[in-house]
């Protein structure tokens, strides 16, 4: 059993439309929304937002930094290096 995201009445999974309010069964919408929220959370903007919204911004920032450090693998570092090298080259070309 799921709940309609529009009217919050219980609906079965097989129903494509909510029998109560007629809105499309938003299971897919729900998943997409969750994914979007997840992406937003993991995005730079989302992380900045969570830092800004935190009670202790410095602490939140340090925690983020720690998380970033842990997720930095050699591959990511290499990718970053390539990106920076590319930007650097582009900047030199423009100037
Ligand atoms: Zn509904």
* Apparent shape: elongated
Query: Mean pLDDT score, rounded?
Result: 81
Distance between the termini: 61 Å
Number of helices: 4
Helix and strand composition category: mainly alpha
Biggest sheet features = 2 strands, antiparallel
Relative strand content: under 5%
- Give a list of the ligands: zinc ion
Helix content: 55-70%
Q: Topology as H/E string?
A: EEHHHH
Number of domains: 2
Estimated radius of gyration: 21 Å
DSSP, total strands: 2
Strand order of the largest sheet: 1-2
- Unreliably modeled segments: none
Mind sketching the topology for me?
Blueprint: E1 2-3, E2 10-11, H1 27-42, H2 44-53, H3 57-71, H4 74-94
Name its key features.
elongated, 65% helix, binds zinc ion, mainly alpha, two-stranded antiparallel sheet, 95 residues, 2 domains
Please provide a brief summary of the model:
The chain is mainly α and 95 residues long. The protein has helices at residues 27-42, 44-53, 57-71, 74-94, and strands spanning 2-3, 10-11.
How would you portray this structure in words?
- The protein is mainly α.
- The protein folds into two domains: 42 residues, no CATH class; 53 residues, no CATH class.
- Helices cover 65% and strands 4% of the residues.
- The protein contains four helices and two strands; from the N terminus they run ββαααα.
- Strands 1-2 form a two-stranded antiparallel sheet.
- The longest helix has 21 residues.
- It is elongated.
- Bound molecules: zinc ion (ZN).
- The site of zinc ion (ZN) has 8 residues, from loops.
């Amino acid at each position: 059993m799921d709940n309609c995201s529009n009217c919050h009445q219980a609906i079965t999974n097989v129903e494509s439309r909510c029998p109560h309010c007629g809105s499309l069964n938003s299971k897919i919408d729900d998943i997409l929304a969750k994914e979007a929220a997840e992406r937003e959370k993991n995005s730079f903007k989302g992380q900045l937002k969570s830092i800004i919204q935190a009670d202790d911004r410095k602490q939140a920032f340090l925690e983020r930094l720690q998380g970033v450090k842990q997720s930095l693998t050699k591959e990511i570092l290499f990718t970053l290096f390539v990106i920076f090298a590319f930007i650097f080259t582009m900047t030199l070309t423009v100037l």
